[in-house]
Amino acid sequence: MTESLAVSDGAQIAVDVRGKESAPPLVLVHSLGCDHRMWHHQTGTLSQTHRVVALDIRGHGASDAPGGDYTLERLGRDVVDVADGLGLEAFDYCGLSIGGLIGLWLGLHTGGRLRSLTLCNTGAKISEAARWNERIEIASTAGMPALVDGVIERWFTADYVDAHPEEIERARAQLLVTDPGGYAGCCAAIRDADLREEVHAITTRTLIVAGTHDVATPVELSDFLHAQLTQSALTLLEAGHLSNVEQPDAFTAAITEFLS
Hints:
Layout: E1 2-6, E2 12-18, E3 25-29, H1 43-46, E4 51-55, H2 72-85, E5 91-96, H3 98-109, E6 114-120, H4 129-141, H5 148-155, H6 158-163, H7 165-177, H8 180-191, E7 206-211, H9 219-228, E8 232-237, H10 243-246, H11 248-259
Parallel strand pairs: 3-4, 3-5, 5-6, 6-7, 7-8
Antiparallel strand pairs: 1-2, 2-4
């Protein structure tokens, strides 16, 4: 069931909710340039044991796309507001890329709400400001079509692109319908986020998932998180950036085992 919830600044955030209402809640947050449909390989399995809440971050999917730069705190507050709106006192959390960065913020600021953290293909600081400023400029002037080819190259390995054209087309379609202003706003949030000096304070039980061929968030970023988070385990998958899409069975198995 898909619904829309108002968060504390008035924006509407879209959520897709599956599974029994009595099951333990699991919040899923997608990568930049995707939406909740990114998890289509996982939701069927995960909703058998959990109440799966997959949201569209602001600027993406069916959620509102307010103008201007976003902040990591605002994106984190959106997750908390959605949880409050659904009556979730405590929940498991899984986020990929910007979703993982949001998870780190939640671990630092709302750790008492978290049963567990799964941080996928992410880092305490992702890339440099120049890259995000370039993305912001392209999205703001030329729109999403000008970004698609370069993003796809960073999301998947070349072998996967050749072997799975239907998944690549699905990913391209999600990128193309992303609001360029919302995309730029989230790029600003990533650009301005640097949690490297703080993440050691996270005490939530954590699974870190990395792709061995990920050029967007290289394994070294996950190694750093694993070293800093004392209650963490690290899983490596033979995949690029969207490891849940490129290695769906291995990814789902790792998450399922961790949550159980």
